[in-house]
Amino acid sequence: MTGSQLTSSSQPPMPPIATATATAAPPDIGRRILDLPPITAALLAPAGPALWSDDDVYRLAEQPQAIGDALCLETHRHLRAERIGFVFRRTLSDKGGRVTLATTSVVGAKLGFFAALDFLVEVNWARWMFLTPLQRVALVDHELSHCGIETTAKGEIRRVLIAHDLEEFRAIVARWGLWKSDVAHFAAQLDLLAGAGPAAQ
Question: Whole-prediction pTM value?
């Protein structure tokens, strides 16, 4: 971090990101992950820098990194040998009116050689600072789910980005309901999540 003066304008804005499901208790597997000692330790550490210098483009994201390292040993074991870095950016551009909390990319071979990274996760610092512990772990879990490894016909390892399981417009669901199997399955999982909330409290 440079020695430039930090101003009040460098503080993160209060983002309206809370949702009804964000405060519900997670399913059993989510509670178990949150109770893992490495995850608990990571969540007790500072979330990130309290202020942001206008001269900084990136900052090391130590808490997301710690959460990611722990998740790679639990729910993303295929990524244990991958070199995944986490950095903060002051903010990320919104897409289609939706807030971008983080983005994941494959690090190219040349840059990866010097940076010793296979994947890079950029985290929206201004939003991260106001996420709940559950949301932080869920976000890192989500970004790691984009990281994939394929073996080519020549036996070479290739890093790829995995698309979301569900692609649909809210307006289509509003008009036609659960018209596809993937949409219906996603809705069923949300019903399970909603049902697990009150029982767990």
Answer: 0.79
Phi/psi of residue 111, nearest 5 degrees: -65, -40
Residues 176 and 133 in one domain: no
Structure tokens at 114: 């010097």
* Partners of 151 in the β-ladder: 157
What angle, rounded to 10 degrees, do the helices at 133-144 and 37-44 form? 120
Is 197 buried (19+), middle (13-18) or exposed (0-12) by CB count in 10 A? Answer: middle
What domain range includes position 196? 169-201
What are 126-152's pLDDT values in tens digits? 999 999 998 999 999 999 999 999 999
Helix (H, G, I), strand (E, B) or coil at 71: helix
Whole-angstrom distance, CA of residue 87 vs CA of residue 58: 6
- The pLDDT of residue 122 is 98
In the chain, which stretches have pLDDT less than 70?
1-26, 192-201
Same structural domain for residues 130 and 200? Answer: no
